[in-house]
Amino acid sequence: MNQLSKLACFILIGASVLLAGCPKKPKRPDPSATAAGMGPGGLNATDVSLNADDASLQTKPEGDARYAPENLERGVLPTVYFDFDRSAIKPSERAKLEQASKQIADLKGKQILLEGHCDWRGTAEYNMGLGDKRANAVKEYLAKLGVEVIRLEPLSKGDLDAKENASGEEMSKDRRVELVIIKN
């Protein structure tokens, strides 16, 4: 009887596993049908960045004139470059941030946009997260150098500006954080 009850239990468990099966994977929506993939009137991928602390989505208002190209001053502050798939600031790039902290101190009252970029490899979601980690790493480093955190705005651009199928040298230039002065 003992063997018969073991066999019955085995058959019942096996049948329940077969009948239950594995859950189906959810179908991935078409990006153009989602809020992040919408065109005018909706959010664009450039408007969204992941916050590494709580992984919530943050968006910039579409009509925010502060982010218009004419209100951004590029090339004044240095650009910080990163190794592949890394968000740690390389020792060779730290001197640039020390220089930038002094320049930012002279720009009294100006906000600084920290644009995190990635090369074309990896998924869009992964690259947005990595760009955010890079921007926040620069923010933390500048804060340790005495820059007021309230003046620093991290923004992930992910691989949006990266050249697809780029050479190794081109990809190394895509892995960066640009320090951009917001004029208004």
Description:
With 184 residues, the protein is an alpha+beta fold. The chain has a single domain, classed as 2-Layer Sandwich (60s Ribosomal Protein L30, Chain: A). The chain is built from 4 helices and 7 strands, in the order H-E-E-E-E-H-E-H-E-H-E. The chain has helices spanning 2-20, 91-106, 124-144, 168-174, and strands spanning 48-50, 57-59, 72-73, 79-81, 111-117, 152-158, 176-182. Strands 3, 4, 5, 6 and 7 form a 5-stranded mixed β-sheet that branches. Strands 1-2 form a two-stranded antiparallel sheet. Strand 5, helix 3 (124-144) and strand 6 (152-158) form a beta-alpha-beta unit. The N and C termini lie far apart (84 Å). Residues 34-59 have low confidence and may be disordered.
- Helix count? 4
CATH class: Alpha Beta
Instruction: Return the CATH topology.
Output: 60s Ribosomal Protein L30, Chain: A
Approximate strand percentage? 15-25%
Low-confidence stretches: 34-59
Distance between the termini: 84 Å
**Which structural class do you get from the secondary structure elements?**
alpha+beta
Overall body shape = elongated
Largest sheet: 5 strands, mixed
CATH superfamily: OmpA-like domain
In percent, how helical is the residue content?
25-40%
Order of helices and strands: HEEEEHEHEHE
Radius of gyration: 24 Å
Q: Averaged pLDDT, please?
A: 78
Q: How many E strands?
A: 7
CATH architecture: 2-Layer Sandwich
* Domain unit count: 1
